[in-house]
Amino acid sequence: MGDIRQSLLPRDVLSAAKELLYHLDIYICNLVQSGRQTPQVDTKTLELVEEFILHSPKDRNVQPRRMSALQELQLLEIMCSCFQEQSRDAVRQLMFSALFSLQGNRADESRMALLSKLVSMAVAVGRVPILECAATWLQRTHRVYCVRLARVLVDDYCSLMPGSVSTLQNIHSSSPRFCCQFITAVTTLYDLTTEDLTPPLELLQMIVSWLQDDPRLVLVTLLNTALSGSPPISSLDLTPLGGLVRWCVKAPLAYGRSEKRPPVANGTAESQAAEAGPLFSTLHLSVLQVLMMLPNVLNEKGLFGRLALLQPETLATLTSDLSRLLDLADEHGPPGDAHTLSQLALDRLAQALQVALANGALLCSREDLRAICSRLPHNNLLQLVMSGPVVYYNNIHTPPMAFSPHSAHSPISSHPTHQPLPPHPAPHPQYPAQPFLSPMPFPYRPNH
Q: Would you say the pTM of this structure is higher than 0.85?
């Protein structure tokens, strides 16, 4: 495509961009039809995209051409139509990658700005093909840029125009893949470490309603991903389960912080915190329901006992943050309230750990678990979880186990700290396999 550059130079900025998109569509269609196993867009084509669509010329001495706000809106509409009219998903995905895959150069800021506006428009006008491509982009891109895109959408639909959150909410049924990746990104962004990183109430309400309608939504990426190896450490998690557990556990203390809260549009911060409490309780229940679905899902993919959706490192960070919040609550909160909120947070952590261990989402020994939770104060439920019988999985990636409820050949063994019981007059029946559930179908803000 390098030979079309001379024909694009005399054109005005919008006409050149439109013409290049037309040629790019033809070029990628030919690439896909060529039958190559992994078709790739050549470097010269990517340079044309940077020059005539992202307006970042290679020559630093050349003044980049700029679009007016109206021209930019027209370009976004053209791009929406281009992806909507292209019927082949392989072509759409490759074109989206050619336009928005980050290259590690100065054009990346222009890419992020245009991508954020395009995805925001796609949400507004219901362009599902773009949302599906954006879901793939979120799965493959460094998490730093993923959370930037998520922040733009939250700003556009939850902060700048709160009444428009229903528009974002409606994509739940049209693009579950994008919704799953969006939840993962926002739970990565809003980690409840500060007031600014506490999720807006509108966002929380939307995610809770999504999971009430269909808790399996958070497993969509897992169900649609062929896992051939470990994902890049810089990418988003495979599911938002870790982030959602963090939200539920930290919420009672994070929303009870004593820092001065700024006024909000729809009432005081205290009233919003009171309204958020039941929402986090509902969210916690949904997370536990999803964790109980995992044995069926992981067994179908041959990953039970091999894939940990909750990482010990994530839990170590969570318990460290929780310990700090507990100290703050003890120092600044009313004694009775502080104790109640602290026990609620610890109870939720214990429940999540127990259900995750029992259903294969967390693969670690009780010794490791006790080390992770060593900084936390006493909690009866958490103590039971840390001292309970170990559940092991018949897999070389995990240590040998005393008893597995998922195997029909695993006898009951005594707890390591107890002496073996004398023989029973009649042998115990072996534990049957666990009945599984039925199979399931399956702060960057660009200038506007």
A: no
